[in-house]
Write a structure and sequence with these properties.
The complex is a heterodimer. By secondary structure, chain A is mainly α. Chain A has helices at 10-16, 20-46, 50-67, 70-85, 89-116. In chain B, strand 6 (87-91), helix 4 (96-104) and strand 7 (109-112) form a beta-alpha-beta unit.
Chain lengths: 117, 639
């Protein structure tokens, strides 16, 4: 069965080691970070500022690793790598748009998870 | 029957000197009771005497100069309505009818003068005293229980009610002999008997809880009940009691009211807690979506609206969380959980959480644990974290320039534990002196002239509750425009770290306490938190020092003995490559040779060994695999 969940918090669970308060706090910080960082990419894309896109995607790589499914993480990795080497930028553009498009759903899933803790 | 040694005072009221002499002689002769006789000849002198002293028995001749017949008894009793007099009637009439009438009117016994002898007199006095004592005891217990007794003869309407019946119904004792008479003299309060007896005709031995109106109009709750008997003269007689249960009913009503109020409060609190809990999900959605909108293309007006929505939502969420916390406190569901806590790691953790907020406001933050503080202490880690986050968070909120200093030291060393001091000092706006006493009261917010700070007024209340729960204390000093200092003191026992079996098993290499000092260098606060958490779990006992860029890392290396460095690569100010290069060039061999693990999210670092050429000992990929991190640290430290 294909999972429709955009988030996968198994790594976060592992580092939290059952510490619910820590997990909740991490989730809240991650929510703040991705809701600030991901939308920045839209403007950066319009400005063709691939260097900053690289920095943002690099910062997001660790964060997304704690909470996203492999598809999302892979898209961000592609953006990070391509923006560094200025290659496959069309694919990167698609991936950035995809990340921005999925952000509200990811946030909703994360916020529901945080609220349930 | 031998008498005991108690001397009973007897008052003889008789105007016949010969009779008095006779009674005196008989009393001297009787062996049944020891008496001291006082003799008076009229009711007035009797009254004076009774007013002066207490008599075990009064022997009353019904024919006195100042009173004649059965009325004499009634007059004597009326002289002392509040006392129960033990009266034996003395009569010259050889017919029993007068004596029987006297007993009906409250005399204990009657004696016929011509039948007297020492034994008869002695017995009569002794038995009357005993009956009288029993009667008084019964009367007293009835008074205490507020039970009055009454009797009624349906055939003649004859009625008797004890003093207490009159008292309960709020009337003077009229000594009425008929119910109709009692109603006439004592008012409508006695109608209760009419209603009761009407019902009793159909339901003999009726037990009725009822409401009666006293003569003064006050409503009382009573229990009235009776039993039917047949009297000596073969008449049906109804013997009953009436009990005033007003106090009991009121107490029950109050108890029910208190129970109802308690339940209402519980329901209200539960309702607030439920609503608050349910509010959190939509509040999070509003917050999340507002955050997204803040980054959208908006004109200044729209941006201001969204900022207001965001800030209001954040405040609402704070209120909701505080209410839930307070509800838990009020329900008493919070309990302390003491565990060995590495106080230095805990402060690092707080620093990692708050340092960005401090820097965002261009403030200087300093987090220090004094050397004399033992590393491991028995504390409730979660509560201490929450107290510090709350107090330091407040300092950040109320400080616009200057610094925030967090200092942990020992306030006092005691026999079995020590008093740990957490001092948070800021250079913020300060709290007006007249408001200092109120800051821990729920829903109290500090009012400042120049600026409004939104607050639920619950944060410090919650902090104080936790501190109290830990038998700690808190002291606040503040000066307007200079700053505020909170000093929290918590009793804590130094402890050796005991590694739980499950934690020990989770490490494939080492099952004891780690004495490493690890320098963690990363600008990403999430990474810092996760790394601290991971090291806390995987390397119990280790001390973790954090730095948010290469420059800070070099400072830490100069001032601390560092066993291993976990180095992020991309950082502002000075990145991981440059920092590592400088470390390797250090003149201090201890610094130059320190193992450095590169922490990177770039898998390409694994493609060749270029990282070793750049001075790194090894690498760990982010996000961390905790076991792999430990494996590598063990590799370079245990060897």
């Amino acid at each position: 069965m294909i999972s429709t969940q955009l988030i996968d918090v198994s790594l976060l669970d592992e580092v939290s080691s059952g510490d619910v308060a820590f997990k909740k706090m991490m989730l809240e910080m991650i929510i703040v970070e991705i809701s600030e960082e991901v939308p920045k990419m839209k403007q950066l894309l319009e400005n063709d500022d691939w260097e900053t896109i690289h920095n943002v995607s690099h910062k997001l790589k660790t964060t997304l690793g704690y909470i996203c499914n492999e598809d999302i993480c892979a898209r961000n990795r592609q953006v990070e790598s391509a923006s560094k080497h200025k290659t496959e930028l069309e694919i990167s553009t698609q991936n950035i748009n995809n990340l921005i498009e999925h952000l509200p759903i990811m946030l909703e899933e994360l916020e529901n998870l945080a609220a349930s803790l | 029957m031998p008498h005991n040694s108690t001397l009973h005072k007897v008052l003889l009221i008789d105007d016949n000197a010969a009779d008095a002499r006779l009674v005196s002689n008989y009393l001297d002769q009787t062996t049944l009771i020891k008496t001291k006789l006082i003799h008076v000849t009229n009711l007035k002198d009797a009254s004076d005497q009774i007013a002066k002293e207490t008599f075990s028995v009064i022997i009353l001749d019904l024919s006195l100069k100042d009173s004649q017949g059965i009325n004499t008894l009634q007059r004597l009793r009326n002289l002392f309505p509040k006392q129960i007099l033990n009266i034996i009637v003395l009569t010259g009439n050889i017919e029993n009818s007068i004596g029987i009438e006297a007993i009906r009117q409250g005399a204990q016994d009657f004696l016929i003068k011509s039948n007297l002898d020492p034994d008869i007199l002695g017995k009569a006095i002794r038995f009357s005293i005993e009956r009288h004592q029993t009667y008084r005891y019964l009367n007293e217990t009835q008074r205490q229980a507020k039970i009055g007794s009454w009797r009624y003869r349906p055939s003649t309407d004859e009625f008797f009610a004890s003093d207490l019946v009159y008292e309960i119904l709020g009337s003077e004792n009229t000594h009425s002999e008929y119910l109709s008479d009692a109603i006439e003299k004592s008012g409508s309060s006695f109608l209760i008997f009419v209603h009761y007896l009407e019902e009793e005709k159909e339901y003999p031995n009726l037990h009725r809880d009822s409401i009666a109106k006293k003569q003064n109009g006050n409503v009382i709750h009573i229990i009235i009940k009776s039993e039917r008997t047949v009297s000596l003269d073969n008449q049906i007689q109804i013997n009953g009691t009436i009990q005033d249960i007003t106090h009991r009913v009121r107490m029950e009503e109050l108890s029910k009211e208190a129970e109802f109020n308690k339940k209402s409060l519980e329901v209200k609190e539960q309702f607030i807690a439920n609503v608050s809990h349910e509010m959190r999900t939509p509040m999070n959605a509003i917050l999340g979506l507002s955050r997204l909108l803040l980054n959208a293309e908006l004109n200044p007006e729209q941006l201001q609206y969204i900022k207001s929505i965001y800030e209001s939502s954040e405040m609402l969420l704070g209120i909701v969380n505080d209410i839930l916390e307070m509800t838990s406190h009020q329900k008493g569901t919070l309990q302390l959980y003491l565990e060995p806590v590495n106080i230095r790691q805990l402060i690092n953790y707080i620093e990692a959480l708050l340092i960005h907020k401090i820097h965002e406001k261009d403030l200087i933050g300093s987090f220090n644990v004094q050397d004399e503080v033992p590393t491991y202490l028995l504390l409730d880690k979660l509560r201490i974290q929450q107290i510090l986050l709350n107090l330091v968070g407040n300092s950040v909120k109320f400080t616009e320039k200057g610094s925030i200093d967090i200092n942990i030291s020992i306030a006092e060393i005691r026999a079995e534990d020590l008093l740990l001091s957490f001092k948070i000092t800021d250079t913020g706006i300060g709290i007006p002196t007249e408001q200092l006493d109120a800051i821990f009261i729920p829903y109290t917010t500090v009012k400042h002239e120049n600026k409004a700070y939104e607050s639920t007024g619950l944060g410090l209340t919650i902090v104080k509750t936790w501190i109290d729960q830990m038998n700690g204390g808190v002291e606040v000093k503040s000066a307007i425009g200079i700053g505020t200092s909170f000093e929290v003191t918590i009793p804590a026992r130094p402890t050796e770290l005991k590694v739980p079996a499950s934690d020990a098993n989770s490490s494939p290499f080492y099952s004891g306490s780690y004495d490493w000092t690890i320098l963690l260098v990363d600008d990403h606060h999430l990474n810092l938190l996760v790394a601290i958490k991971t090291l806390e779990k995987k390397c119990p006992g280790a001390t973790v020092i954090t730095a948010i860029n290469g420059e800070k890392a070099l400072e830490e290396l100069e001032t601390n003995h560092i066993d291993i460095v976990l180095m992020d690569l991309q950082m502002p100010v000075m990145d991981g490559y440059e920092t590592t290069r400088i470390i390797r060039q250090s003149d201090n061999p201890q610094i130059a040779n320190v193992p450095i693990l590169a922490m990177t999210a770039n898998a390409y670092i694994t493609k060749d060994n270029s990282f070793t050429e750049k001075g790194f000992t090894d690498y760990v990929l982010k996000p961390f695999d905790p076991d792999l991190l430990l494996l590598k640290m063990n590799k370079y430290l245990r060897s």
